[in-house]
TrEMBL record:
Keyword Zinc-finger among record annotations: no
Entry keyword set: Signal
Protein's name in the database: Esterase
Segment forming the signal sequence: 1-21
Length: 375
């Protein structure tokens, strides 16, 4: 993906997390319940059955509080102070289903909501809120066999440090000493880190559930930090970001470490790379530069491939491209159609009623996983 496309993706990540306000919203139902992501025992923030979010912050010495969540780009939800020093307010319209980052602006300063858990996004630990999705069952915590997500530290000579990755191993991993597994290298988006796919994305639960339903064969997932320089993050700082250094970390350091320390099938035919947003940009660049490393490519709100880019390279077994219906669905659909004309196994997927946000990517992973490692 070129710099222009990357800048667009970053801008979308910053601005497209919420749906547009309805032109004639129904009356707000008073059936608010605490968000599932609240700190233990905290009543706020709350969400109702229509997708509205309500906030309540105690700050008796503050003059103004605004929640960064807004609709239609109108600057967030401003809270109103009462005589007891509590600030309360409700979003002006229902939000998109799924996970959203947010923070508080208190008298001009940026703070997190003490009522909810924090998630690394936008280059900082942000507050998180979950709007229950009608199809949330596919990433729900169920009474099924669960895999394990473990932290690893691997040596990186190219960056002169030890770097961190998280590795998902499926249920039953290690019980059969002769069994080996394919590997998906799964990258986060701009401003996030290697915790995103497990915490915000529920990747492990999605795969656990698919395995339990018999829809996929077990495989390993590796998630690592996609930045390798100290460039100030943001659209301006990204102009100085080069993928080459991360490509070295991934292909020359992390992959050999994983193959040496986990029960992998260590060949191209059993290795996939996917990423969301900026992680899609990295996937696009690395799979084109190192086509002998990966047989499965997936861009989740992360651009597209063209036949010209793939020409005269080892043919991928799958090219998967997805986005939300509020992004640019024609782009991924048209790209898949062009690739199919040239004989590639190309699949496009569009998540309905979502934008550049984690429900798009949760759904995308659920659609992608059954297409991987088809021998």
């Amino acid at each position: 993906m070129n710099l222009k496309c990357l800048t667009i993706a970053v801008a979308m990540a910053c601005t497209c997390t919420l749906g547009e306000a309805q032109t004639a919203p129904a009356p707000i139902k008073d059936d608010f319940q605490p968000s599932s992501l609240n700190q233990p025992g905290q009543e706020y923030p709350q969400v109702n059955s229509q997708g509205y979010a309500r906030f309540r912050i105690k700050a008796p010495k503050a003059d103004s509080i605004k929640v960064s969540l807004g609709l239609g780009g109108r600057g967030g939800t401003r809270l109103t102070k009462d005589a007891d020093g509590y600030f309360t307010g409700t979003t002006e319209g229902p939000m998109d289903e799924g996970f959203h980052y947010y923070h508080l602006n208190v008298d001009g300063g940026t703070f997190n909501d003490p009522g909810t858990l924090n998630y690394y996004g936008s280059t900082r630990w942000e507050s998180g809120i979950e709007i229950p999705a009608h199809d949330q069952d596919f990433y729900a915590l169920k009474d099924v066999a669960h895999g394990n997500v473990q932290q690893i530290l691997f040596p990186s000579k190219s960056t002169n440090t030890s770097r961190r990755a998280f590795v998902y191993t499926p249920p039953g991993y290690g019980k059969n000493k002769s069994e080996k597994y394919p590997v998906l290298y799964l990258q986060h988006g701009w401003g996030e880190d290697e915790t995103a796919w497990s915490n915000q994305g529920h990747a492990n639960l999605i795969i656990d559930n698919l395995i339990a339903e018999g829809k996929i064969k077990p495989f390993i997932i590796v998630m690592t930090y996609g930045m390798t320089n100290d460039t100030k993050m943001g659209p301006a700082g990204l102009r100085n970001f080069k993928v080459d250094a991360f490509q070295t970390v991934l292909t020359e350091e992390l992959i050999p470490y994983v193959d040496a320390n986990f029960r992998t099938i260590a060949d191209r035919a059993h290795r996939a790379m996917a990423g969301l947003s900026m992680g899609g940009m990295e996937t696009h660049a690395i799979t084109l530069a190192k086509p002998d490393e990966f047989a499965y490519y997936a861009l989740l709100s992360g651009g597209t491939y063209s036949p010209a880019e793939l020409k005269d390279k080892p043919k991928p077994k799958l090219v998967f491209m997805s986005c939300g219906s509020k992004e640019r669905p024609d782009g991924v659909n048209n790209a898949a159609a062009e690739l199919k004309k040239d004989g590639y196994n190309a699949v496009s997927y569009v998540s309905q009623n979502t934008a550049h946000e984690f429900l798009t990517w949760r759904r995308s992973l659920s659609e992608l996983a059954p297409l991987l490692f088809k021998d």
